[in-house]
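Researcher: Please predict.
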Amino acid sequence: MLEEILVEKDHPLSVRLREIAVGFRVEGHLFHAIGDPDPDSPFVEANAFYQWEKASDWCHEYLSAAIESALLWADFHAPLNFGPSDRVRLRPRPIHGLARSCLESASQAIWVMTAEEPRQLSVRHLRLVNSDFVEQRKAYGLQSKRIETAKRQLERFESRYTSTFEKAEVTKAVTYRSTVREAAVAMGVEPDEAEFLWRLASGATHGKRWAALEINEVELGEEYEKGQHRVARTPSLEALVAVLSLAYRAVQFGVAVFAVRSGADLQACRRSAMLEVAREMPVDPEREGERQAILDLLSDP
């Protein structure tokens, strides 16, 4: 039996969840304000190795997907319009699913963008492009009218990159596990901890029993058969904070690296994003002066 969890809004973990939701909004505004890479930016140098599928465009796509998942949760957990009688019901499985989606998408971008030099960045990018074409071919293989299209696309891709890169370095497999671990190292996060939270989120998404026991507080109830008990489950705020914090860190780090690789002014973009979020946030009328103070601070040059 799943139970709704009611938490006082000033509970530290509840406050942290609202902070993460606001943080995701800031990153969303920041990310979509970056624009195309500057002519002298690292991305342009990396893009030159393979002009048909730009590394900057694909990293933008990964981060965009991560932010979409993050904002879906943020809009549910901390909506911009919130009536006094409204309640947020914490349903741990879908929240972990969105966090997992966010983490996997952002980790791909981080893994590509944190390469040590432009050629390596391009190779990592092309490994993911190759994986994408391979997966497309598998999917289109289930639809007879489209399989030839997928085969031609993969063949054209191979004919283009082999003029610059060895086939073995581009076709080397990439897994979500490896990109999550590599991204964790880049972010200064213990990779085993990142992989644990990723596996936990995956298990929760797929209805695995071990994960359900990890993400909920479980209380034994009636013994309806010998050794078999009814149970009551209450979502664990600690588990939610842990996985959402990791997803937020990945988005924040990924967006920052994307801005730097694009040659954007990260600090100026961040200030503008924070100002936009501060303007749109609902605030208790009795604390309007507090919001105005924040707006004034963020508006200072």
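Model: The radius of gyration is 22 Å.
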